[in-house]
């Protein structure tokens, strides 16, 4: 039941003109700034600890996040998930901080940056994706006492009950699978259970929310529709984060199972193309879908750069060129240089209250059975006062203070996303012929 305690905050932060918002959007898309800026700046304030009562309740819940970009760290030579790292070294998720923050696991993203729309570039991207899914699977095979691979919705609770962290696998940007239905099947066989079609730029599958060139397909391409159908038939959840509004509308219409926005925010709070408006939020909820709320500061509110930072960013973009023209090695080098830039010229940061503003608004519009948490950890997410997963109990504390129940929290922290996966599984099972008697 929706509470009346939190009225709609329509356009609370809409202060820029349409032209300036478009210019800012183009700059972010071309520079890849959003990918890493939020979580890799200089040290942020330590989160306020919660009460023992809140901590105990948080520990009772199955706490999952639907967008962990930590596989980018897993593939680094010498980097171990078992060591405690820090925000200062560009890390927000590791085993010690998962334990401290009560994060039972989530969906670990197979992400490979998009290059040119050529067979050679997609083949290189596929190699990156294959490396990352191997690294994700290795969490469970190399550390079986601490991580468990989850292949269906019902796997999550037993893994967590055994004291392990849950490893679901998702894919952010299906660009490396373009034209390769055999690889869609192969990644499913390795554990892929959630898939998005597009990232910052349009590709051969779908339009992006942030491509400065505007729409190419006006939604899904024919190849994109075929991939969605294949993913449905296999039992994957379809993720519309990063996709254009037209893609979202078509997925709602065409997908036989509810879709997810694995890491998105409220456009009626901050008018950014990566966010979703209230009208679509209501349609998402009416269709049974779920939105997982993002904590990437550039999507929460306007974050103007200092002149010095703007100049340094412009020089970095000029040196590396557009994201679509970079090789995987150049994309990795760009992120490392951006992290170094952030240390010298820190980005303006959103804070915990900015995040809560989006979360409470979305809860009021869509309802607690259609909302969850997908903070974009290690992919740019994190705000002052909640800059790594150790601070997650603060969300539980705040939602309790706003009047949400433990049942609501159980749905928000994992139940809603798991329901979608179960529905995808059930649909795929319904397509299989009944066994002969």
Automatic annotation (TrEMBL):
Pfam families: Peptidase_M19. The lineage of its organism: Bacteria, Pseudomonadati, Pseudomonadota, Alphaproteobacteria, Caulobacterales. CDD domains: rDP_like (cd01301). Transmembrane segments: none annotated. InterPro entries: Pept_M19 (IPR008257). This is Dipeptidase.
């Amino acid at each position: 039941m929706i509470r009346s305690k939190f009225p709609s905050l329509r356009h609370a932060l809409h202060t820029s003109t349409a032209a300036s918002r478009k210019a800012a959007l183009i700059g972010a898309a071309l520079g890849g700034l959003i990918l890493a800026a939020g979580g890799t700046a200089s040290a942020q304030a330590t989160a306020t600890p919660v009460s023992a009562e809140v901590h105990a309740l948080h520990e009772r819940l199955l706490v999952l996040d639907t967008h962990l970009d930590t596989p980018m760290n897993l593939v680094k030579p010498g980097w171990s998930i078992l060591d405690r790292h820090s925000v200062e070294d560009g890390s927000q998720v590791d085993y010690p901080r998962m334990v401290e923050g009560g994060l039972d696991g989530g969906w670990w993203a197979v992400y490979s940056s998009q290059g040119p729309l050529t067979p050679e570039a997609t083949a290189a991207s596929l190699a990156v994706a294959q490396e990352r899914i191997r690294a994700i699977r290795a969490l469970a095979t190399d550390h079986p006492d601490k991580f468990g691979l989850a292949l269906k919705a019902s796997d999550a609770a037993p893994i967590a009950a055994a004291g392990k962290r849950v490893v679901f696998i998702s894919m952010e940007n299906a660009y490396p699978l373009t034209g390769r239905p055999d690889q869609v099947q192969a990644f499913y066989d390795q554990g892929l259970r959630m898939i998005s079609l597009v990232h910052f730029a349009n590709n051969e599958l779908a339009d992006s929310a942030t491509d400065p060139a505007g729409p190419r397909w006006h939604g899904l391409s024919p190849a994109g529709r075929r991939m969605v159908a294949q993913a449905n038939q296999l039992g994957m959840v379809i993720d519309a984060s990063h996709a254009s509004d037209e893609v979202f509308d078509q997925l709602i219409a065409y997908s036989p199972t509810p879709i997810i926005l694995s890491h998105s925010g409220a456009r009626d709070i901050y008018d950014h193309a990566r966010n979703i408006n209230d009208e679509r939020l209501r349609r998402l909820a009416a269709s049974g879908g779920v939105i997982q709320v993002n904590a990437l500061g550039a999507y929460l509110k306007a974050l103007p750069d200092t002149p010095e930072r703007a100049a340094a960013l412009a020089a970095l973009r000029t040196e590396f060129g557009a994201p679509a023209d970079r090789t995987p090695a150049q994309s990795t080098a760009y992120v490392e240089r951006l992290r170094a830039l952030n240390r010298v010229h820190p980005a303006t940061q959103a804070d915990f209250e900015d995040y809560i503003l989006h979360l409470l608004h979305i809860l009021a519009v869509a309802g607690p059975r259609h909302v969850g948490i997908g903070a974009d950890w290690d992919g740019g997410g994190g705000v002052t006062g909640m800059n790594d997963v150790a601070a997650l109990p603060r969300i539980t504390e705040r939602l309790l203070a706003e009047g949400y129940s433990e049942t609501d929290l159980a749905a928000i922290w994992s139940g809603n996303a798991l329901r979608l996966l179960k529905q995808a599984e059930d649909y795929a099972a319904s397509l299989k012929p009944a066994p002969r008697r």
